[in-house]
Amino acid sequence: MQQNTDIEKDLQLRELDAMCVNESRLEHRWYHNLKYLIVGILFGIVFVKAEVISWFRIQEMFRLQSFHMYGIIGSAVVVGIISVWLIKKFNIKTIYGEPIKIAPKTFNKGQIIGGLIFGFGWALTGACPGPLFAQIGTGATVIAVTLLSAIAGTWVYGYLREKLPH
Q1: Fewest Cβ atoms closer than 10 Å to its Cβ: which of 3, 53, 58, 131?
Q2: 102 near 87, Cβ under 8 Å?
Q3: Quick one: how far is CA 57 from the chain centroid?
Q4: Is 124's pLDDT higher than 70?
Q5: Around 79, how many Cα atoms within 13 Å sit in the side-chain half-sphere?
Q6: pLDDT, tens digit, for every residue of 73-118?
């Protein structure tokens, strides 16, 4: 019983620290990560085929000239809503039997500021974090600048996190 309370305290601390609360405690050999590489490659192929990585498609979206990207984003939101509902309703566990805990979220003004910064960066570069690697993989190596900028932005956020509105 003591172990369960320690786990609960650990989860609460990790929620406050904005860390992944579902991070597995299991350790695997290196080749277990190959499944993520394969899924990533397949996901990149889907991005390319769906034209999600196209700078022109992204510009069309921000200029309200095409429904293409809104349809893709909207369908992803619907799939996400259904997935979270199913996880909560049926208490679905990870493939290793670990519970999935979805922490309650509260709204704050920092989310608006962060969303605006993210949107401006997306509109300027024509890339959001998801397709960056697929864009680089298709030969658009100039996107490496965007990738490095995203990494730098993440580092700056981590450095200034305590001073930012949350």
Answers
A1: 3
A2: yes
A3: 20
A4: yes
A5: 6
A6: 999 999 999 999 999 999 998 877 888 888 888 888 888 888 898 8
Residue identified by tokens 């190959």 is: 34
Of 130 and 61, which is predicted with more confidence?
61
How many Å apart are CA 34 and CA 130, to the nearest integer? 19
Query: pTM here?
Result: 0.67
The answer to whether residues 134 and 53 touch, using CB atoms and an 8 Å cutoff, is yes
pLDDT confidence bin for 22, thresholds 50/70/90: low
* Rounded (5°) CA angle 115-137-61: 40
CA dihedral sign of residues 75, 79, 82, 88: negative
CA distance 34 to 32: 5
The residue count of the chain comes to: 166
Given phi > 0 = left and psi -120 to 50 = alpha, else beta, which region is 4?
alpha
Q: Nearest-CA neighbor of 68 among 57, 59, 77?
A: 57
Contact 127, 146 (CB under 8 A): yes
H helices of the chain, in order, are 2-16, 34-49, 55-62, 68-90, 109-125, 132-137, 143-160
From CA 54, how far away is CA 50, in angstroms rounded?
9
